[in-house]
Every structure is written in C-alpha cells, then in structure tokens.
C-alpha cells in the first residue's frame, strides 16, 4: 500500500490510497463506527456525503459481538453493510484508558471488560488475529499508551515494549489485501517521538500512524509534536494522525503532511446539538435559534441544510426527538467531508496556504 | 374533498383523495409525527417507502413550539420538510388522557400542560384556528373523549357536547384547500354510535373519522363497533379509523370499508426492537437472533432488509446504537406501507377476500 501522491503544496499532499475495497482520496476523514455503526447514520448516507473509509474498534468488537461471530457472517464489511475500506483501531488506547486494575507484562495486557467486568488478556498477536478475522483493510497494532503525565523512565520502558509488540504484530500472517500500520508513540517527548519513528521506519510498514496526541496537553504542544513527528516519516507512505480533531486542527495537520484522520467530534457533538459551520461552532439548542429560518450553515449543501431551519432543529432538540441528533450528526459529518474535499482541491490547485489562512480566520481559530 | 373510488371489492374500497399537497391513494396508512417529526425517520425516507400523508398533533404543536412560530416560518409543511399532505389530530384524545384535574364546560376544556403544568383553556374554535395557522390539509375537531368505562348518561352528555362543538368547529373559517373532518364517537354503545353518525352526516363533512375505539375494550367489541359504524357513513367520503392498529387489524378494517389509518405501533415497537413480518411480530433483541444471517423479513425490500442481518440488528440493539431503533422503525413503516399497497392492489384486482384470508392465516391472527 503506497500513497499515490497526485499533488504537493508545501508539505501538504493530495493523494490516493488503494485498498481491496476501493480507493481513498487523501487527505481523508474517517467517520467513527466504534461498535460497527456510525452513530445515527446509515451507510448509504456515508456514501452520499462522500465518506470513503470508516474506522471501527477491534477491542469493542472483540467484546461484543465477538470477531468470530462477525467472521462467520462474512466479515465486518458485510456485517455493517459498508463495502468501502475499513480501518480498525486496536483498542490499545481504550484498554489503557479503562478504570481499575490493569496488568501489563511483556507478553500482553490483562484488564477487565468495560461491559461486564470479566477478566481478559490480550497479546499483540491476538489483537492482529482479531482484525484478520474481522477482514478489515487496515489494522493497527496493540501498543502501550501511557498518560502524558508519565515520567521519562516509564515512557521509555513503554516505548521499548511497544516496539517489541509491533515487531511481533508484524510477524503475524495477514489476510489477502490487509495492511498493518505502525503507530509512533513517545508521549510529549520530541526525542522519544524521533527514536520511535527511527525504529519503526526501517521495518517497512505500509502506513504510519501517530498516536497519543491531543490527550490533554496544550494545543501548542500537540501542534509542535505532530509537526516534528511527521518529518520523521517516509514520504511515500500514508500518515495517519489518530483521534483528532476540530476543523481548524485538521487544516493545520494537513499542512504538515498528514493524510488520514478520525475523530468522534462530528457525531458526539452532533448528539449534544453542537454543529460545525464555516463561521465556527454553534449550539442549536440555544433559545436564540427558536425563530431562525436559516439553515445551520448557508454555505452547506447537506440534507439537513437543504431541508430544515435552525428553528426546526432547535424544536426537535427541545422536544427530545431522535431526528435532532441524527440531522446534527449528518450535517457535521458532511461538514468534515466537505472540509477534506476542499483541502484536496486546494492542494491540487497549489493554493492550500492562502485557502487555509482565510478558512482559519473565518473559523476564528486562535493560532496556537 | 370527495373520495374518488377507483375500485370496490366487497365493502373494501380502493380510492384516491386529492389535497392541495398531492393525492393520497387509499386505503392509506399515515405515519405519526406527533411533534412534527416521525421518530427517527427523514422525510426523504418517508417518500422512499411510499408514504403519501403524515399525521401530526395540534395539541402538541400548540404547546411546543407553538402554531404562531410555525406559521411565521411558512407553515407546518415547510417547517418539517414534508411537502405532501398533513392531517393533524386535534389532541382531544391526549387532553382527555392527561392525569390530574381537568374541567370541561360547554365552552371548552381547561387542563394543565403535560410539559410544564401551566393552566390552559381550549375551545373548539381555538383548536380549529390552531390547525388553520399550521396550514394542514385535514383538520380534526376537538371532542370530549370519555373512558370506555363511563356510564350511559355521561356518554350521552359527552356526545351532546361533542356534537355542539363540531357545529361550532364547522362555523370557523378554514384556509384555502383545508378540510375539516367530523369524528364519530359514542363509546362502546352501538346505539350512540348510530345516533352520532346520524347527527353528523347531514352536516356534510368532507370526511368522517371514527374515534374512541381500541382503547382497552376486547378486540371482538372493537371489530363489531367499527363494522357497524362504517355502515352509517356516506359512501362518497373518506372514512378514517383513528389510532389503529396491528397489521391483522388493518386488513379487517379495510375489509369493512375504512380508508385512512394512523398508529404509533410501527415506530414505538421499532424503538423497542419489535419488528413486523409477514409471519408475525419478532423481537430483534432476543439471543436467538445473535448469529442469524437472514434479514428481518426475507419478503421485504426495505433498506434494512436489503442491507442487514438480524444478527447485526440484534448487535446494534444490544450495544445501544441509535441505528437499531432507526432501522427497526424504517422497516416497520415500510411494512405498513407495503401492506396498504398490497391491499390497494388486491382490491383493484377483485381478490381482496382471498388475499386477506391467506395473509391473516400467515400472520397467525386469532379471528375475533
């Protein structure tokens, strides 16, 4: 899996990734389907808004309904009715965020299910095998995620283990057309980030993710670390910045040369009534929208903006109607897809920097 | 508004009703949009499944967001993004089902809002004016709904008042293209039902509803009263049986000559995981569906049945994903629309009775 680079503009790249389930135009945003469902959104709607790949979670699907059940029904694509590419996160981040006791050894990690408290043990090999059974296009290895407050010695030990685990993950056989990415960790240390990338790149992965950022540190730090880490990654492989972010963040990260993104914000915010617009965020529940005949965003061509006023959406939210989170999530995901589409267009036209400056100004983003 | 009768088969009629917002092929089922939204379903999906008219509720919209707000935004059609016909129930049934004190006088009804407890007073005239402001195609008058356990004297008094109210409702001016139906009440008394119909028919309404049935009485009683009441209604006007029912009930009521129906069952059951099939109802949450690769109903062509297995729907429901109630509601509404479509087809072909017998047998319905 090479990144077919179609155009470059500064460090930003407009590319295409080919998978067994179709191509992905990059930079791309992956809607999040943690439990094999993008919350409130049909696969046909994902297609309509231009999504080309979705992200699911191996840990969540392992717990419920189980990868063997999904495999016996023809794999994750058929199970969730999505015939485009799928990337699964390993769930390492989720496992290491769980409350309660957790025991990490060189062999793997012991933890308790967040669903029923039963004790589970996962090795890096098993995490790959779960994703092989799911039949996804892009797999992520298990890694040890420490909180950003961990000390340097703990960070270095976790990194050593993560590198050992990724080598063991790489030794597991994959299914046809499957690709295992590596994840650059290293907490908030520029030196550890460099070391981790330097150890991973010679192993020759089809793609490189950057994990453990935007986990509570200052925005300025996130941007600096994302920037310097990207510089350590190969030019001809896709770069996936995990779990970020706001629209203004995505514009900056694309400018650094990242190609893939995922984030729960469009759907989670949508469920709370927060919608994204080219003028910034807006809470549709506020009384000020009660009589507003305008759509969420007059620039937007999504189904919600073509058909409904802010007043109607506010009424739905106030009345507790399911259609409120559905329409707000649909709008937000459409907004993110349109943001990526515009970035691809601007990179191809060699106008990314000026477009980004004007969009960032309109979004009223504070420069970090 | 006359009923354009295209075909008759026994007492069943296949017809067409013309409104300012398009035609309705009858017998027709109206999805319920109490608060200006069919729960979990987009207007474009209503169109896709063949719905031609939706039902909303004047009382609910009066309380929130208020008919003046809706009128100021261009009326209910534009507000909810549905350009087909809309019928509003008056909300009399809801008002008379409210807990707590309620005072009925000849003038109108005093009650407390179910949202915030504030005291409200509605007259029959005001209830018509609310619906005129909403701009709906078919309006329903305020009536006094007694529980089926009320004694004969109370029933007769309520009926006298309801007849007085409907005359006052009829005297209110309507907007262009609007139609006020009358409602036949009379509780569980065949004699009162006959008297009520005999009083209403000479007043010349464009359509006649039958209310106060299926409110707790035995199914046998519902069927008998619906049957005898239909016989008192004019042949050339649409007959609307309010708030029913199960698929097997609709088949029987169409056989009696009813044309319009509404019911919350498809969406309410869908939200609980209960789905309708040609073999009867099924609860998609049950463990027995965990590995089932079949769609909800192999005979069904809805989006959910074309794309997803029972196993996936069961997983969504178990995981608490919004898509579970959305897909189950979509399937159920599609099922109801398909049921009506088949009935229209069978009536036109003169095969309704044999079709009904075979469908009722398959649905395993107990003959009342």
Sheet with most strands of chain A: 5 strands, parallel
Average pLDDT of chain A, rounded to a whole number, is 95
The DSSP helix count of chain A reads 15
Shape of chain A: globular
**What is the CA–CA distance across the termini of chain A?**
34 Å
Given as residue ranges, the uncertain stretches of chain A (5+ residues, pLDDT < 50) are: none
Strand content of chain A: 15-25%
Largest interface: A-B, 37 and 37 residues
Number of domains of chain A: 2
- CATH class membership of the largest domain in chain A: Alpha Beta
What CATH architecture of the largest domain in chain A do you see?
A: Alpha-Beta Barrel
Helix fraction bin of chain A: 40-55%
Oligomer: homodimer
In CATH, the homologous superfamily of the largest domain in chain A goes by the name Queuine tRNA-ribosyltransferase-like
Number of strands of chain A: 17
CATH topology heading of the largest domain in chain A: TIM Barrel
Secondary structural class of chain A: alpha/beta
Strand order of the largest sheet of chain A: 4-15-14-13-12
Rg of chain A: 20 Å
């Amino acid at each position: 899996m090479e990144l077919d680079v179609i155009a470059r503009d500064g460090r930003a790249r407009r590319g295409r990734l080919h998978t067994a389930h179709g191509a992905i135009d990059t930079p791309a945003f992956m809607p999040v389907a943690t439990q094999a469902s993008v919350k409130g959104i049909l696969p046909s709607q994902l297609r309509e808004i231009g999504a080309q790949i979705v992200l699911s979670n191996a840990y969540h699907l392992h717990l419920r309904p189980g990868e063997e059940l999904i495999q016996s029904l023809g794999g994750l694509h058929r199970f969730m009715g999505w015939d485009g590419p799928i990337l699964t996160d390993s769930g390492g981040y989720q496992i290491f965020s769980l409350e309660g006791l957790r025991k990490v050894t060189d062999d793997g990690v012991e933890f308790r299910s967040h669903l029923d408290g039963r004790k589970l043990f996962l090795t890096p090999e098993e995490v790959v095998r779960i994703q092989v059974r799911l039949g996804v296009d892009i797999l992520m290895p298990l890694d040890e995620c420490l909180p950003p407050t961990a000390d340097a010695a703990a960070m270095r030990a976790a990194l050593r283990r993560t590198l050992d685990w990724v080598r063991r993950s790489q030794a597991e056989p994959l299914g046809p057309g499957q690709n295992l990415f590596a994840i650059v960790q290293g907490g908030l240390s520029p030196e550890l980030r460099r070391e981790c990338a330097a150890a991973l790149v010679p192993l020759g992965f089809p793609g490189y993710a950057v994990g453990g950022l935007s986990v509570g540190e200052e925005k300025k730090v996130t941007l600096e670390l994302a920037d310097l880490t990207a510089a350590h990654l190969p030019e001809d492989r896709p770069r996936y910045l995990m779990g970020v972010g706001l629209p203004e963040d995505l514009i900056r990260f694309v400018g650094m040369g990242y190609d893939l993104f995922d984030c729960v914000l469009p759907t989670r915010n949508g469920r709370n009534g927060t919608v994204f617009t080219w003028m910034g965020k807006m809470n549709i529940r506020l009384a000020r929208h009660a009589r507003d005949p305008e759509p969420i965003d007059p620039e937007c061509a999504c189904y919600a903006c073509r058909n409904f006023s802010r007043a109607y959406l506010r009424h739905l939210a106030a009345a507790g109607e399911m259609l409120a989170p559905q329409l707000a999530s649909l709008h937000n995901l459409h907004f993110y897809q349109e943001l990526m589409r515009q970035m691809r267009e601007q990179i191809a036209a060699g106008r990314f920097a000026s477009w980004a400056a004007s969009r960032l100004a309109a979004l009223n983003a504070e420069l970090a």
